[in-house]
Design brief:
Helix content of chain A: over 70%
Structural class of chain B: alpha/beta
CATH class of chain A: Mainly Alpha
CATH topology of the largest domain in chain B: D-Maltodextrin-Binding Protein, domain 2
Number of strands of chain A: 0
CATH topology of chain A: MetI-like fold
Number of domains of chain A: 1
Largest interface: A-B, 53 and 59 residues
Number of helices of chain A: 12
Oligomer: heterodimer
Shape of chain A: globular
Radius of gyration of chain A: 23 Å
CATH superfamily of chain A: MetI-like
Largest sheet of chain B: 8 strands, mixed
Strand content of chain B: 5-15%
Number of strands of chain B: 10
Amino acid sequence: MFQKTAGFRVFFWISLVCIGGFIFLPLLWMVNTALKPQAETFTMGFFNTVSLENIKSIVTNGTIMTYLKNSLIVSFASSFMATLVCTLAAYSFSKFRYTGRKLIMGAFMMSQAFPQAILLLSIYVLMQKTGLLGSYGALLISYVVFTLPVGTWTLKSYFDQLPDALIESAKIDGAGNLRIMGQIILPMAIPGMISVAIYGFVWSWNDLLYSMTLVTDSAKRTLASGLVMTYLGEASTNWGAMMAASIVSAIPVTIIFVFLQRYFIQGLTAGAVKG
Amino acid sequence: MKKSRFLALVLSVLMAASVLAACGGSGAGGGVASAPANGASGAAAGSTAPSGNPVNIVWAGWSGEEEASKEIFGRMRGAYEAESGNSVTWVGWTWADTAQQLLIRTQGSEQLDIAQVDIGIFNTLAQAGVLADVSEILGQGYLDSTFEASALEVGNVDGQQLAIPWSMASISMVYNPEILAQAGWDTVPATVEEFEKCLADIKALGGDVIPYAVSTKDATSAGDFMPWLWTFGGAIYGEDGSVTINSEAAIECIKWYQGMLEKGYIAMDTGRGEARQMFAQGKVAFYDDAVVAKGQAVSNGVAPQDVVNVCSAMERPVLKAGDTPQSTMWGHMLVVFKGSEYKEQAAELAKTLISDEVAMDYFTNNGMPPVTKSLITSDAVKSDAYLNGFMQSTATASLEETARMANASEVKTIITEELQAALLGQKTAEQAAANMESRLKAL
């Protein structure tokens, strides 16, 4: 598509360096700050003095490890629940025809248009009335709600790709809807489901607003709100420790993404090209 | 396909286990917050007396979450619980999130009896109409005998006493005596002219010291600008509430800021947080802050008793000798919620928190200045060199002009943006002042 002329190469490399700079410099600065002694936090030094005191203080901090554990529980659980619900909804939208289907699909997409902060108060009241406030359950349900629109539409695109003939053949062979879904459709939709699971995991892992609002018991706090509570004070902010903790908190998401990125991309791009 | 199926199976098992753990974990403590651990022995409480069946009251705020004051807050709760037989559940957020979270909690009808608020947060809650008039609970007589009228005034809105003063001082100018001494200044500058000379001497020392880290970004920029504007004789609003910021005084003040930036006395992109941190590291000679500045110095390794050697408060320089030094009020207050079922118990907790022993514990270990008549005249408080500097400024401090406004943050944003435009050379001082006025009028 592009001629690899000298001009193109220059443009390509300049663009790459600029975009890379925007993406990686903040991350590099985060690592740099985490590895600075506290007295040098606000200096412009770039890996001048490397100190592991911040990292050490994080990994030996039992409270931070509790937040980490809570985040893992909530993120894995909400990711699982979201994938399950999205799969069922997407399969229904893709392979069944019923009154109001398009309206519900539109409503799913519309719900994504509202900023999450707007829904906070109504979700808060809902959780309070149902007695879920302060529990992991409140977070799980909220995260599933926010993963639902994108997850359902992603999986619907995936299911749309699967030929209806497969389902018809299975029906002729006497398989019921549940069996068709469980034994034929779902195994073929695994990449799509994995991409939704990753999306749900990352969403819940990164959430600050809901975790801070719906859970106020420090024993149940997730990492994002726990870190902010621990290191952002009225009078002082421990940026070094905050950056070190951010690195630690990014590790699980990074590992999961590295291992599953193939499926993530495959799942997201399904249905993008007709053929 | 086999590989992906195996991967999916492993993930599913892991996720299902998490769901089970999450559901299991939410059973026992499904409530809002577990009962707090009683603090250590703690200070004895004030005049609280056990009354009726024990109840659980919910106290919210931010300081109980912070490392520097967590233990003290545990002792405070312990003192009240021991005295009253009631229990206290602490609910905390970050300082910056407290106003929003308190409003959400009150809108959601979740139990909330008493909260720690600062002056900025107080206005938001008072405007929302969720606060109880504490004079009806504690009695005006008790309030008058416990606090100075000026302290009560801060929590009084339209004749209703919506907050109990807890810890009050002013946002003063803070300086590093060691840097001033190096620059040849044994006394602090008293006038703007002297201040500029002092900044020039500090600048001449070389190095990477910022002579005056006045805030030039975020909402603290407008907060720092306000007392300087008053110093130059200007104001954002007139007595009748009209916008008066496009004045000669304001233009002169903005030009003064521009001049200081040009000479390298102040720096762009400096907020209160950065100023604090750099000041604590000896890289700032002057900046504006409240008494909580001490916390940053201590967390940077300065012994509490030595803080005054590197961090002292002073009165803001005046335009000409004889003028009144300007500063803005700062403080933490206690509010009781209108919707609380336990207003009396909450007010009793407030009485415990301002009682001499508990308040002295807070002051001694966290530097938070007490506000009751009995303590502000005590030797322990009067002889505190660090606090004295702040108390001098407090005598002439005023509430921020936006303190009682519902759209305070919008007003501050406009002032900050226009000031920044002037400092960056995008607008002249005249244009910035004119734009401030037109934008404020359009609100």
